[in-house]
C-alpha cells in the first residue's frame, strides 16, 4: 500500500501505535526540517539549495533532496514518488510543497499497512527510486544550473551594449519628420 506524506508537524504522537504511524510521522518531520537547523545533527532534514532557482531546476533539486533525506534518516520508508501540491497560492508565493509517496519496507509490522517487496514487484505502478535515479536527477539539476549560469553570463555580456543603446541620442531621427 502506498502512503502519501507531506511536510507538517501537527499532531505529533510521542507514542505511535504502529510502525506505519511512526514511519509516517518521521517522514513528515524530515520534510518539515531545513537541513542545517538541527543542533548536533546539521545534516538532518531537506536541503534548501534549490532556493531562488528556476522552477524546473528547483523541482528536480527538491526531489533529489527529499529522496536522499528519507533514505538516510528513515530507512523503513521506501520513496515511490515525489509530486508537488498544485496549490495556486503556494505557486504564487514561490513555495514548493512536496508530497512524497512511500511504502513501508518489508518485514515492518504496521497495522495492516505492510507492503512486502514481493507484492511490490508484481505491481506495475510501483517502481523503486534507486540511487541511480537520484544520480540522474542530480545530474539533470546540475546541468540546468550550468545552463542558467551560462544564460546569466550571456546577459551580463549584453549589459554594456544595452547601456550604449540607452545612452544613444535618437532625437536626430525624430527631427527629420
C-alpha Rg, in Å?
A: 23 Å
Overall CATH class: Alpha Beta
Query: What structural class do you assign from the helix and strand content?
Result: mainly alpha
The helix content is 40-55%
Determine the N-to-C terminus distance: 76 Å
Give me the strand/helix succession. EHHEHEHHH
Give the strand tally: 3
CATH architecture: Roll
User: Which geometry do the CA atoms define?
Assistant: elongated
- Strands across the major sheet, in which order? 1-3-2
CATH topology: Nuclear Transport Factor 2, Chain: A
Overall pLDDT level: 77
**Count of alpha/pi helices:** 6
The biggest beta sheet, please? 3 strands, antiparallel
Tell me the number of structural domains: 1
**What percent strand?**
5-15%
The stretches of 5 or more residues where confidence is low (pLDDT under 50) are 109-128
Amino acid at each position: 500500500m502506498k502512503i502519501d506524506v507531506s511536510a507538517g508537524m501537527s499532531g505529533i504522537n510521542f507514542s505511535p501505535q504502529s510502525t506505519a504511524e511512526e514511519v509516517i510521522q518521521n517522514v513528515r518531520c524530515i520534510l518539515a526540517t531545513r537541513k542545517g537547523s538541527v543542533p548536533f545533527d546539521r545534516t538532518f532534514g531537506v536541503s534548501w539549495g534549490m532556493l531562488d532557482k528556476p522552477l524546473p531546476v528547483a523541482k528536480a533539486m527538491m526531489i533529489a533532496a527529499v529522496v536522499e533525506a528519507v533514505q538516510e534518516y528513515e530507512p523503513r520508508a521506501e520513496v515511490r514518488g515525489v509530486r508537488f501540491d498544485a496549490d495556486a497560492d503556494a505557486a504564487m508565493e514561490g513555495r514548493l510543497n512536496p508530497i512524497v509517496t512511500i511504502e513501508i519496507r518489508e518485514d515492518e509490522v504496521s497495522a495492516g499497512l505492510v507492503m512486502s517487496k514481493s507484492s511490490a514487484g508484481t505491481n506495475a505502478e510501483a517502481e523503486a527510486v534507486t540511487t541511480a535515479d537520484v544520480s540522474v536527477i542530480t545530474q539533470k539539476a546540475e546541468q540546468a544550473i550550468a545552463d542558467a549560469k551560462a544564460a546569466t553570463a550571456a546577459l551580463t555580456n549584453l549589459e554594456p551594449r544595452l547601456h550604449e543603446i540607452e545612452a544613444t541620442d535618437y532625437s536626430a531621427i525624430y527631427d527629420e519628420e
